[in-house]
Amino acid sequence: MEPSTSSAAAPPSTDQAPADPAAADEALASQPVGYWSGLVHAAVTRRLRDEMARIDVTQPQYWVLNHVTYRPVPPTRQEVAEELTPLADGPHEIPRVVDQLLHRAWLRADADDRFHLTDAGEAARVRVRALATDLRAEVHEGISDEEYVAALKVLRRMAANAGADAMAPGTT
């Protein structure tokens, strides 16, 4: 009997192993990506939020400040809520954050109810940006840009393979 010469791709040569934070390099290919991506997400988010709390700012507040800054047309309350709610912890978080920023006078609404940062809001955004930049440098220590790009490409491909829309927040 002749051996089969199928043109189908061979299945991966590794079985799924249980998550093992101490796994040796040669065993990493069998580690669950969900464990490692979840660990990184939780650790980085916790660290960022802890650092922001020290200067009395939340991550959702930073999202809103950035969103208002970088929109080509100043957004309305509804636009901010619609565009950032997928990132938030529930449908009420972003509207509350907008109210907090208005109360702090970091945000103001013009006659058309479109939001703009005040000078104090821009100063806060710049402070948080510096904090986030410093934290990013710490998290990326020992990782080249090439390694980082390769890791993101792999995660982007895995997300696509799993059916996620990489452009839609909250779907990955």
* Principal-axis shape: elongated
Largest sheet: 2 strands, antiparallel
- Provide the β-strand percentage band: under 5%
Query: Any idea what the radius of gyration is?
Result: 22 Å
Terminal CA distance reads 47 Å
Sheet with the most strands: spatial strand order: 1-2
Q: Please state the average pLDDT score.
A: 88
Q: What structural class should be given to the helix and strand makeup?
A: mainly alpha
Total DSSP helices: 6
Number of strands: 2
Unreliable spans: none
Helix-strand string: HHHHEEHH
Give a written overview of the molecule.
With 172 residues, this protein is mainly alpha-helical. It has six helices and two strands; from the N terminus they run ααααββαα. The chain has a two-stranded antiparallel ribbon with strand order 1-2. The termini are far apart. The model has no long low-confidence stretch (mean pLDDT 88).
Compact overview of the structure:
With 172 residues, this protein is mainly alpha-helical. The chain is built from six helices and two strands, in the order ααααββαα. Strand 1 (107-109) and strand 2 form a beta hairpin.
